[in-house]
Amino acid sequence: MKNINLIVVAGGILALAGCVSDNSPTPENMARNTAQTAPADLQLACSSAAATKFGADHASALPVSSSAVDGGKYQIILEAKGQRSSCLIDQAGTVLSLEKA
Predict the structure, then answer these.
(1) Torsion angles phi and psi, residue 57, rounded to 5
(2) Which end of the chain is less crowded, N or C, counting CB atoms within 10 A of the terminal residue's CB?
């Protein structure tokens, strides 16, 4: 009788084990955010330029997002006093364009 119970329990465990699969992706197959953000010093340079151009307090002109664009340039979205602006800056810190979004 013990052998039959053991076989039934073992069979149940094997059946359940077959229902569980590990479909977790391996690290090389995981989705990753590959967007490159602008370095902090370039974000601050755009914030300062926006505060000066649009008459905002330097402490209130804050970057909300940034991304690399072609040619080693970065686009930085800033917000000051509820108004958004877009800044295009190169790796050397030269603001190429700054306009309200």
Answers:
(1) -70, 135
(2) N
